[in-house]
Design brief:
CATH class of the largest domain: Alpha Beta
Radius of gyration: 20 Å
Strand order of the largest sheet: 3-4-5-6-7-8-9-10-11-12-13-14-15
Shape: globular
Helix content: 25-40%
Oligomer: single chain
CATH topology of the largest domain: TIM Barrel
CATH superfamily of the largest domain: Aldolase class I
Length: 379
């Protein structure tokens, strides 16, 4: 595909000529529950002769998704929803679900509910959301997510960003997107998008683009070009990725991803524990195994590539996995829904099968945020 090409979208598993009729029949049962969507650009990255191809696992359904495990709202976003499409979990941050469509649907998506009930979850009353943000002076940064904000037309996205820039206390606007991986043509071919970023990413108030590259093969020449164009337009680019079984949950693969991201200036930011969303068991690595994978990957790269934090987006806050011994595992609230808990330090007895904080037994020790950090285990 060349620059200027319009991607062809596929939303039915029957459209995949690379699959046998038997495979289509089996996977249709999955897509009846969890939506499928991709495009010819991203599908071209798959080695169809390899059933374990990592790009395939990112976007092509698996029968194992039907295993009953997890829930539709694993981080309890509903508890922090002010109105449809507006969440206010952390004191200084508002989250706007500005759309209900992604260029492709990741099989491990933690917001599957958005595609199950597409007319219910996203932001429709933009003026009301802006009024709320305007009235809450503690909100200094706003994250645009969804659905993918860059699926919106540039004019519609600009209307939202322009309105946010009129609110003086909003300092940072973040755009969470997988478009640079799924469809870099959206960036490369849209001069208006880059002009809009240049207009609203100022010296004192930057626009951040939070990319979602999770495997080195997503970093094609075109994707790298798209990231470079975002830089030249004035955006700050940072990357966040979940740890996904069969995709990047190997130290060598993860290290290669982190290194290449640092080379192109998509700063490695977060590695997320895969959220226990319905259907996600096949993609989830236990926390303690994940910690070892992340640490082994970090050992292979330079300081610029190892700035990531390994975290889980728990209902109570963003919890960083900060250490492990033979007997104990250590967590810290990187950011808590209750500001008083930010920095709180937790010690649990190891549980190699734990995939979420809730899988651990009662906390062995905990230290409030005001306590000096201590690096020893239970007394």
């Amino acid at each position: 595909m060349e620059t200027g090409t319009i991607c062809k979208y596929l939303t039915k598993i029957e459209q995949l000529e690379q699959l046998s009729e038997q495979e289509k029949g089996e996977l249709k049962k999955v897509t009846e529950q969890f939506a499928f969507r991709s495009n010819d650009y991203y599908l071209s990255l798959i080695d169809w002769s390899d059933p374990d191809d990592p790009i395939r696992k990112i976007v092509i359904p698996q029968v194992r998704e039907l295993k009953q495990w997890g829930r539709l709202d694993p981080s309890d976003e509903k508890s922090y929803t002010i109105m449809p499409g507006l969440e206010h979990k952390y004191n200084s941050t508002a989250l706007l679900l500005v759309g209900n469509v992604c260029d492709g649907i990741c099989r491990y998506c933690f917001r599957k509910r958005v595609f199950i009930e597409p007319q219910r979850e996203y932001l429709r009353d933009i003026p009301a959301a802006m009024k709320y943000i305007e009235q809450h002076h503690e909100i200094s940064n706003v994250l645009l997510t969804g659905g993918d904000p860059l699926v919106l037309t540039t004019s519609k996205l600009e209307r939202i960003i322009r309105r946010l820039r009129e609110i003086e206390h909003v300092q940072i606007i973040r755009i969470g997107t997988k478009i640079p991986a799924f469809n870099p043509y959206r960036i490369v071919d849209d001069a208006a998008l880059l002009e809009m970023i240049e207009k609203y990413s100022t010296d004192s108030k930057k626009l951040y683009v939070m990319t979602h590259f999770i495997h080195p093969r997503e970093l094609t020449d075109l994707a790298v070009k798209a990231v470079g164009l975002l830089h030249r337009a004035g955006a700050i680019v940072a990357n966040q990725a979940p740890l996904i079984r069969g995709v990047n949950a190997e130290p060598a693969v993860l290290a290669k991803l982190l290194a290449r991201l640092s080379f192109i200036g998509a700063v490695p930011y977060y590695i997320f524990q895969c959220r226990p969303a319905l259907g996600n068991k096949a993609y989830t690595v236990p926390i303690e195994q994940g910690y070892e994978i992340v640490e082994q990957a970090k050992a292979q790269v330079s300081g610029l590539a190892k700035r990531i934090r390994f975290v889980m987006s728990h209902s109570s806050g963003k919890i960083e996995v900060i250490g492990k011994t033979e007997d104990f595992v250590y967590f810290k609230y990187h950011r808590a829904a209750d500001d008083a808990d930010s920095g709180r330090f937790l010690v649990f007895k190891c549980n190699p099968n734990a995939c979420w904080l809730d899988d651990y037994e009662e906390v062995i020790h905990e230290y409030p945020a005001s306590s000096p950090y201590r690096s020893y285990g239970p007394e």
